[in-house]
Specification:
435 residues; alpha+beta; D-Maltodextrin-Binding Protein, domain 2; 19 helices; globular
Length: 435
């Protein structure tokens, strides 16, 4: 294994072409997830390799980050030189000219980026954001608890089986809940999960004439199932839980099962973080009437807003942070089981990674199975698995997410929440001129 110093030197030589360029401070907006926190710890390696460039981090909770970067780029606020965005924003903002196209040297290996990630972060074949880590979603479960209950978990479980497993693992007297799922409102929070669940129940956001379908029986079935599942077998206060809150519960041994981003696997199997690291196993996302759209596709990626005065320096940072060499740097620092995943073919061909990451096969299988162009049982006019790739979706998804959280908290019935959601979506789509 390469030493930290030798990798830093390699980065200085291989990615330090802009090192002599006069530059100031790069302000980078990112999300408060574990891999981003680790990137901040390694900032000194980048700064040493690129004298003259310093980095200032603005680290935000997921929902706040989305709001801040959207407001900044749409108003040309100029607060950030590098933004952490995803597959929803990259093609839309790239088409509008809000992002700088990304082109890197041959050593970067753009063809090594998984096609699903590269395609989802591009518009008309031009890359507008480079993936820092990519993900799908899958089941992470306590095999010891299922074994004790005399049950197993098939690789492609149904939602009915998941419900039975959650019931079998729930032990409220000892603070163990059979299932933990996102409940916090947001188009990329509870609605990312709920959309994939609804997809598998045969639902869709819009029909072929762009008319919202949130009052359909399929949506009602999916959301009713979700509310009942968490009410009966989930932790109290689920309506406030997002990724980080559930990760903490899982690592404390409080969750029998968690269906969420594949990237979580590296955290829940890390003995330094998780009390149940050696008891976790994996399966593909549950299905109901169809497997289409059952697991999401996402990348947290780095992009350069077109308004920055430091585009070259910002691209230098992105090239460093999303390179194969950066992955090796993390491996040398923390081990191969802790590297950012879901971005490069070479990662999944690396024997050191495969030996360290018991989740690798399940993660890659989930990523490769997600199809943004065919994610629902019935035809739709949109692309996207856990979102519809239209500018209006962000506002619609946020508002609908609030209704779903209200239903989960028992403030409104599922039927009322979906009726409200249908009205909200219909109003926004009419205002935008879709019909």
């Amino acid at each position: 294994m390469k030493s930290l110093r030798s990798i830093a030197l390699g980065l200085a030589i291989g990615l330090g072409g802009a090192a002599t360029t006069a530059a100031g401070e790069l302000t980078i907006a990112t999300v408060n997830n574990g891999h981003m926190i680790e990137m901040q710890k390694l900032t000194s390696v980048f700064e040493e390799a690129n004298p003259g460039i310093t980095v200032k981090w603005v680290t935000l909770e997921e929902g706040v980050l989305r709001q801040r970067v959207t407001t900044d780029i749409s108003t040309k606020g100029g607060q950030f030189d590098v933004m952490t965005i995803g597959m929803y924003e990259a093609p839309i903002w790239g088409e509008r000219g809000w992002l700088e196209p990304l082109e890197f040297g041959a050593d970067y290996g753009v063809d090594d980026i998984l096609p699903a990630m590269r395609g989802g972060l591009s518009h008309d074949g031009t890359l507008y954001a480079a993936p820092f880590y990519g993900e799908s979603s899958m089941v992470m479960y306590r095999k010891d608890l299922l074994d004790a209950a005399g049950m197993d978990m098939p690789d492609n479980p149904t939602w009915g089986h998941v419900q039975d497993a959650a019931a079998a693992m729930t032990d409220r007297d000892n603070g163990v809940y059979g299932i933990c799922l996102r409940g916090k409102p947001g188009w990329g929070d509870n609605m990312a999960f709920l959309t994939t669940m609804a997809n598998s129940f045969g639902a869709r956001w819009f029909d072929e004439q762009w008319r919202p379908q949130l009052d359909s029986p399929a949506w009602n079935h999916a959301v009713s199932f979700y509310v009942d599942l968490l009410t009966n077998h989930g932790p109290p206060g689920s309506e406030a839980n997002s990724f980080n809150e559930i990760l903490a519960l899982m690592n404390e041994g409080k969750c029998g099962m968690w269906i969420d981003a594949t990237i979580a696997a590296s955290f829940v199997t890390d003995p330094g973080q998780s009390k149940v690291a050696d008891k976790i196993a994996f399966a593909q996302s549950p299905v109901a009437v169809t497997s289409r759209g059952a697991n999401w596709l996402w990348a947290w990626a780095l992009a350069v807003p077109s308004g920055t005065n430091q585009a070259d320096e910002a691209k230098t940072f992105i090239e460093w942070a999303t390179s194969r060499e950066y992955i090796e740097l993390v491996a040398a620092t923390n081990g191969w089981g802790s590297v950012p995943t879901g971005t490069r073919t070479s990662t999944y061909e690396n024997r050191n990674f495969l030996d360290a990451a018991l989740f690798a096969e399940a993660e890659l299988k989930a990523i490769l199975s997600a199809d943004p162009s065919n994610s629902t049982q019935d035809p739709t006019p949109y692309t996207g698995v856990q979102f519809a790739a239209i500018p209006e979706f962000q506002a619609i998804g946020i508002a609908v997410g609030q209704q779903m959280t209200a239903a989960l908290a028992g403030k409104v019935s599922v039927a009322e929440a979906l009726e409200n959601a249908q009205d909200i979506a219909d109003r926004e789509m009419r205002k935008a001129g879709y019909y």
